[in-house]
Every structure is written in structure tokens, then in C-alpha cells.
Amino acid sequence: MVENISLNKMLEESFKKNWNSPALSDYKGITLHYRDVARRIEKLHIIFKICGVKKGDKISICSRNQANWGVVFLASITYGAVPVPILHEFKPGNVHHIVNHSDSRILFVGKMVWETLSETEMPGLEAIIMIDDFSLLHATREQIVETRERLNEMFGKKYPKEFGPEAISYHEEESPDELAMINYTSGTSGFSKGVMIPYRALVSNVLFAKEVVPNVRNNSNIVSMLPTAHMYGMMFEFLFEMTVGAHVHFLTRVPSPKIIMEAFATIKPDIIISVPLIIEKIYKQKLQPILNKTSIKVLLKLPVIDQKIQNKIKDELIKTFGGRFYEIIIGGAAFNKEADEFFNKIGFPYTVGYGMTECAPIISYAAWNEAKLFSCGKAAPRMEIRIASADPGRIPGEIQVKGANTMLGYYKNEEATAEIFTSDGWMRTGDMGIIDSDGYLFIKGRCKSMILGPSGQNIYPEEIESAINNMPYVIESLVIDDGGKLVALVYPDMDLAEKDNMDQAALQCKMEENIAAVNIDMPNYSKIASVRIMPEEFEKTPKKSIKRYMYQ
Questions:
Q1: Are 58 and 412 in contact (CB under 8 A)?
Q2: CATH of residue 462
Q3: How many whole angstroms separate alpha carbon 381 and alpha carbon 210?
Q4: Whether 106 contacts 134, CB under 8 Å
Q5: What pLDDT score does 54 carry?
Q6: E-assigned strands of 41-150?
Q7: Contact between 246 and 24 (Cβ < 8 Å)
Q8: Residue 39, Cα to own-chain centre: how many angstroms?
Q9: Residues ≥6 apart with Cβ < 8 Å to 288
Q10: Are 241 and 301 in the same domain?
């Protein structure tokens, strides 16, 4: 278990050992070595002390990914404060609410985010600090202003000789159950809840990463493209790396496939963490057009040539992702079945894991060479999984979990906490699935999105959507129940339709053809009755899951 392991001591040892190595970089921008990060941490500790921050006090962080985001998070946790990362895509009202609800004492904010916020809406804050250059935006006391102005002088007085590795000594958590951070969920159901994550969950996830990707060490490079304020990106593209002395490169702009590919080619990461959307876009843009050519389709039916083409595609793909990575770990949402099947067939080193914010985040995983198609692995170390079903191997039931990774509960929300835990202490995930005889987990969909068929059959819209999304001219889709009939809402590829001279009527006709093709493989109770074209893409959470509740 994790009882005798301190996360902050792991960080302290890593900083001392990797003092002169690069730690955090903004892609095409600044690079901070571990010694620079340690120096900035110490300066922030001086500010925290003057602001009266005590152990357990909350510090909010709201900005895009950047090196200073990492500095603030590490400064907060190593001081014994509780960082509250907030997704910078959240609406201003939601940011104000989270800062107030979490009882935060200080807010570190990005320039773009600050333009939409107001200090009068967050009366509990002692200070608001611009994360880009640590300038003071608002302070309740003159002493804080003075401290910021004289910070270098105060630091010099505290360390008159030199600031070396022996100078650092970080807060050591008293118990594995001590509150380490609060992460507010992005939520497909509309409300943000503050997930209270204890140190044991962070330690267990760090140990998990060390166990499954031993090739990530102090000479490794990582590209951070997921939001660091989201548990998945924060844990596996940043925090774990800091404990082993790796070098994290933050993509500071919106990670389009073009920027991502360019960064992979330059940085050549040792491990890649991704959400399905990014991999699916690359599959659709780079591979589908080639695979759909008649000549290639014919060649793929000839065994020897098929194998040669597959190997060539695999080699090209590996090169596209930098050529050095051990595997790509995909998580955060369901992976497109066609892409999953194709990558599996060519032996591409990828795997699909499963987790949630409430487990900081990992629940299940299998290495790429042990994974089963359409599964998301087995229970992670120190975690147990059960299916609430009479026959867990055949009849889907709710996935329930227990172990070191699980949260303490929701901050100031006893009702939601009581609701998520069963009477015997298991945590309900809200997802439906089955477990096979080898212990592999297969997810069917969300409990809340499951639709009851006309004769009581369970319909999982995610499975139908996966088939629709592979159809021509479809970017994304959502299947809803409309008065007992299944309706597909489709957001089409307007650019491609325009290029092919298709007007609205022709596009509608094409979508109806698509649905007819999908229906052939569906049981009667899962057949789509009609299709509606959506004029703009679906509203999404920062994790890029569609906010289903807005369309039901």
C-alpha cells in the first residue's frame, strides 16, 4: 500500500537529484530547470506566509497550460496548502463560484481568464496574482503589496549565501488520508463538484505510473497537451514526471493535430497521454482517406501484401508520433471502435485505460501488448472493480470501485458524497460494463445515458454513435430518445460537403443513407428512426465529452 510514502518527499528528492536538469518548458518558449522551479517555489512560499496561508488552506489556479502553472501547483502542495486547479475554459460565473465554494485564499490567474473575472465577486481572497509573471493584481493588505515589491530582497536575506539543493525541505503529509487537492469536475451533467483527493490517491497513481511505464525517467521528454487542471493530464503529463525528474513540455496553445504532430516530431516524447478525440482526428485525417481508396481495399485483401501495407502504415504512424514512445495511453472517453480495431490489427503500441476524477484518475489499465480489443484493461494496482449485476460477465451492471485511488468525498456536499458510495463502501462510477473471466473490463456506456428500449432492453447510445461517427461526412453524433423513438443528431463535415458541391438537401439525403447503413447491423430495438443535422458542433466539457444533458 502507500502508507509510508510521502508525495512531497518524493518531489523533494527528485528536485535535489535533478537540480541541473530541465523540468518545465513552454513549447517554443522558456525552459525552467529543477533549480529554477525550486527557487520560484521558495519565493511563493514567502508570499503564502505573508498572506497568512496555513496548512490546509486552499489556493486556486486558473490558466492555460504553462510552466508557471506547474510552479504554482508544486509551490502550493509542498507548502501544505491545498491546490484547487480550475479549467480555464470554464465560464466566469463558474470560476467565481469555485473560488468562493472552495474557500480559496489566493487565486493565480492567466491573463486571458482575468479579463473576464472580477475581484468583487470573490470577496474571500487575500490576493490575486497574474500567473504569467507573478505580478500582483489585487491584495487586501499593504503588507502583501510590499512583500511582492521586495520579494527578491527577502529571498536574498533568507538565503544569504546560495540557494542549493540542501536548502529545500517540503511539507510532509501526516496521514495518507490528508487532503492533498480539490479538483472540480467538468461534468457532462451540468454541475461542478469539488472532488477531495487525498495524498494516498496521488501517491498510488504516481506508483502506478512508475510500475507501468518504467522507461519514463530523469532523461525523458513528455508533451503535455491535455488540460493540467484536469486530473488525467495533471497526473500523467506533469505530477508523475516531476517525481522522476523528467522534462515536461507544455503546449501553451489549443492543441490542433498540426501543432501536436509538429511538437511530437521535435520533442520525441517517451510516453504519450491522449484523449480519443485527438487520435481519432489523426486517424480520420491521415488514414481513412488512404484506406478508403479502392486500390488499397483490394490490396488489403491479399494476405502477404496486406501485412506489408499494415507494417508500412504502422511505421509511418510511429514516426508521426515522434518514433521514441513506449506506448500511447488513451483515456477520458470512449474510443471509436473502427479506429480501435484498425490500430489493434496493425499492432500499433496503444492502450485504452479507464478512470475518473474521483480516482485521481486511474481505475483500470493493461499494457498495449497485453490489452484486449474494445476493453480498457484490468483493475489497476491497489484498486478493485465489481459489477453490480447478477451475471457480471454477460449482463452489464454499474461499475463500482474500491481502493487507494478513491476520493474522500465531495467538498461541502454530503448529499452527493452519500449518494456515490454504497452502504458497503464501494464507489459508484455511473458507468455500465461487464468483466470477462480474465478480469478485463468492457464499458458499455453511462448509466444516465442508457435508454430503455420498447420491451425493456438496455440501449447504449455510445455504441450506436461510434458506428455513425465512422460514416462519410460525419464529424460527431448524439443519439437521443424522442418519444420512444431513437433520433440521431449529427454534426456534419460542412467543409467536405461544400468541396463536393453538396447542398443541404443532398447532405440530408446522405445522412439518411448513412443511418440506413448503420441500422443494418443494429438489433430492431436499437435502430435509428430519423436523423437531424446540427448547424454547429455539440457543446463539450474541457475533456471534450459532449454535454448530453443539453440535448436530451
A1: no
A2: 3.30.300.30
A3: 11
A4: no
A5: 97
A6: 58-62, 82-85, 104-109, 127-130, 136-139
A7: no
A8: 29
A9: none
A10: no
Domain carrying residue 175: 7-250
Q: Is residue 2 part of a domain?
A: no
Report the distance separating Cα 179 and Cα 408, nearest Å: 8
Distance of alpha carbon 182 from alpha carbon 104, whole angstroms: 11
What whole-number distance in Å separates Cα of residue 188 and Cα of residue 167?
45
Helices 151-158 and 142-149 cross at an angle (nearest 10°) of 70
Residues 152-185: b if buried by 16+ CB within 10 A, e if exposed:
eebeeeeeeeebebeebebbebeebebbbbbbbb
Number of residues that this document lists for the chain? 552
Q: How many domains does the chain have?
A: 3
Give the integer Cα–Cα distance in Å for 194 and 169. 29
340 with 455, same domain?
A: no
Q: In Å, how far are 343, 365, 389 from 399, measured between CA atoms?
A: 26, 15, 9
Query: Per the structure block, which three cell numbers stand in for 384?
Result: 478493485
| 140 plus 210 within the same structural domain | yes
- Cα–Cα distance, 317 to 343 (Å, whole number): 10
Q: Please tell me whether residues 405 and 528 are part of one structural domain.
A: no
Q: Looking at the structure, tell me whether residues 201 and 282 fall in a common domain.
A: no
**Dist CA 92 CA 100 (whole Å):** 12
| Mean pLDDT score of the chain | 92
Of 409, 442, 475, which marks where a domain is finished? 442
Are residues 462 and 438 part of one domain?
no
- Alpha carbons 200 and 178: distance in angstroms, whole number: 8
pLDDT band at 368 (very low <50, low <70, confident <90, very high): very high
- Whether residues 136 and 283 share a domain: the answer is no
Q: Are residues 351 and 369 in the same domain?
A: yes
DSSP secondary structure letters along 20-31 = TSEEEEETTS-E
The reply to whether 257 falls in a domain is: no
pLDDT digits (tens, 9 = 90+) for 105-160: 999 999 999 999 999 999 999 999 999 999 999 999 999 999 999 999 999 999 99
| Alpha-carbon separation of residue 313 from 78, 148, 548 (angstroms) | 45, 55, 35
pLDDT band of residue 332 (cuts 50, 70, 90) is confident
Cα 539 vs. chain centroid, distance in angstroms?
A: 17
Answer with the one of 442, 461, 486 that is the final residue of a domain.
442
Identify whether 267 is part of a domain.
no
